[in-house]
Structure formats: structure tokens, C-alpha cells
């Protein structure tokens, strides 16, 4: 038991990758090192967030607007810079693409080791920061294809099935890192006394069905009729609870562990929804599928959607397989089950 607990206490994300791949081959070493770097970025961001209100640069806005036209929070830029700095000296990643950057950031030195690309949303849900509610980071790792000499990063604008790893960090009551390299979904909890993410749960499986539905009902007026019909159905059917934190990672994490469904449908103002495919929906879809769940645009699997541009948005219906199937039935015009 002693040996087991010591092993568990030292099971960090980078060590876990080697265990999962059961290999010390270069590819496994690369992924292990990348996960170690992501853990470092997460620790730096977590530490900064914990000082919100005490030090400058955490709360509030920069006064600028990003490519999405959204006002940029100081924390968005800080977290984006953390990822760049952590990976710049890694020799592992050639490009970083993020919600905060119009174009990918190219690591100037040519990459001697890996030719990987990191796609990430450095701080998702940043509107929650000023009210001390949970926020998250979302990331996906892809293998670079071709030489991208024209720096158009066209090899990035491809379906989510091309992802080789994905995960998120939840800065909540505790800071958790959840990831998958395609063999199960695993969670780690940051132990501040160690300064390490320690393995918490392996092979997380989402329940087949859950009673939680997570959607911003303030958008009801601008949804298509089938989505309105679905929400009216859950309003009149026992067994459902509404939970919406306003930050995707926290809302997703609850669904992953307890089951249910998160919805961000298209609307009048945003026909393709608000959430981004390549660094929000696709990484979470990768995770939920490896946890036995489903993620749909409403008409097809998120991971099969063929994007045409880097910051493309898609609607998102993600969670327990039975819940996603139920919403798809409404979208296909099938009568409500009752
Ligand atoms: P709404 C946060 O701004 C975010 O990008 C996601 O984290 C979250 O799920 C969504 O937008 C919330 O959007 O329109 O409900 O406020």
C-alpha cells in the first residue's frame, strides 16, 4: 500500500502519458514532455488567478478587442503569453494557435524535435474572473502536416479527428487538469504543497444519461423552433435540473462527471453558435467521445465537421449519449417522447 500510494503521489501528467502509451519511443517522450509543459502553464495561470484583486494584471480589461471583436481581459493576454513562453523554449511545438491571436504564433527557431501544433483557448470564460467564479484553459495537440511554408496553417483547419491529444484545466475550488491521448480520459488535481498535478481519476466514463441540461435560456427568443421544443419538453418533464455557470470548462466538467448535456445552439445573432471549433468544441468532443459520450453540431459529429477557417464557430451539443440523441431527435423534427 505504501509503495502504491507513493507511486500515485508521483503520477504526474507527463509520467502518465508514458504509462498510457506504454512506450519510451520518441513520440511518447514528445507527448509526455508536452503534457509536462501544459501542466507548467496551468500552474503559472492558476497562481496568477489566485492573486486576483491583490496584484495588478488579473482583473479588468485591457481596453483592446480581439479577432472576435470581444473586449480582451488582462488575464486573457497573460495566459496566452504564458503558453507561448512555456512552449517557446521547448523545441517540441512549432506553432501555437489560440483564440487570442488572429494568426498562429510561429516558434522562430525551427523545431529540432517534434512538429506539433498546440491549439488552445488560454482562459475560457474570462468574464467569470472578476466575480471569482471558475474559468478554464482548453487545449488540443495536432501533428503538423507538410511544411506550411506559406504560413497559412492550412493543415490545422481540419476535422477534430486529426487531434492526437486534448484536454482542459479547470481553475475551480481546486485546479484540475483533464486530458486524453485517445486511450481513456484522466484527471489530475494540483497539489499546491507539491506544486504538481497528481493523478485523481483514470478512465472517466460519462453516464449514459443525466438529468442536467446546461444552456443559456436567455437566448430562448432567438433559437430555432426544435431547440425551443426541446427546452419546453425538459421544462415539463420531471428529472431535469438546469445548471449554467457561464464558463464552458466548468459546465462541461460537471456533465463529464455527472452526465447530462451542454448546449450552445445557433441563434439569430450567431447562426453558428458562439463557441469555436478548433480550440473549444473539438478538444472537448475528443474527450467526451473517449469518455463514452457524444458531441454534435446538431447535424453531425463535431469531430467530423470540416472547418474552412481557423476561428470557425459551430453549434455544440455535448454530453451523455442518450441526452445528445434526444436533442438530435428534436432537431430532426421527431415528436417529443411524452
Ligand atoms: P453566453 C465564455 O465567454 C464562453 O466563451 C464560454 O466559456 C461559455 O460557455 C459561453 O461563452 C457563455 O456564453 O452567451 O451564455 O454568455
SSE blueprint and pairings:
Elements: H1 2-9, H2 13-21, H3 26-49, E1 61-65, E2 71-73, H4 74-88, E3 93-98, E4 105-106, E5 116-124, E6 135-143, E7 163-171, E8 175-180, E9 186-191, E10 196-201, E11 212-214, H5 225-236, E12 241-242, H6 248-258, E13 261-264, H7 277-290, E14 294-296, E15 316-319, H8 321-331
Helix pairs in contact: 2-3, 3-4, 5-8
The chain binds 6-O-phosphono-alpha-D-fructofuranose (P6P).
List keywords for this structure.
fructose 1,6-bisphosphate 1-phosphatase activity; 5-stranded mixed β-sheet; EC 3.1.3.11; cytoplasm; magnesium; 23% strand; 338 residues
Could you estimate the helical fraction of the residues in percent?
25-40%
Bound molecules: 6-O-phosphono-alpha-D-fructofuranose
Classify the beta-strand content into a percent band. 15-25%
Radius of gyration, whole Å: 20 Å
Give the helix/strand class.
Answer: alpha+beta
In short:
One of its GO terms (biological process) is fructose metabolic process. It contains eight helices and 15 strands.
Explain how this protein is built.
By secondary structure, the protein is an alpha+beta fold. Helices cover 31% and strands 23% of the residues. It has eight helices and 15 strands. The chain has helices at 2-9, 13-21, 26-49, 74-88, 225-236, 248-258, 277-290, 321-331, and strands at 61-65, 71-73, 93-98, 105-106, 116-124, 135-143, 163-171, 175-180, 186-191, 196-201, 212-214, 241-242, 261-264, 294-296, 316-319. The strands form three sheets. Strands 4-3-5-6-7-8-9-10 form an eight-stranded mixed sheet, with helices on both faces. It has a five-stranded mixed sheet with strand order 12-11-13-15-14, sandwiched between helices. Strands 1-2 form a two-stranded antiparallel ribbon. A hairpin with a 4-residue loop joins β9 and β10. α5 crosses α8. The longest helix has 24 residues, at 26-49. It starts with a helix and ends in a 7-residue tail after the last helix. The mean pLDDT is 93. It binds 6-O-phosphono-alpha-D-fructofuranose (P6P). 6-O-phosphono-alpha-D-fructofuranose is lined by residues 124-125, 127, 216, 246-248, 274. 6-O-phosphono-alpha-D-fructofuranose binds at residues 124-125, 127, 216, 246-248, 274. GO terms for molecular function: fructose 1,6-bisphosphate 1-phosphatase activity; magnesium ion binding. Keywords: Calvin cycle, Carbohydrate metabolism, Cytoplasm, Hydrolase, Magnesium, Metal-binding.
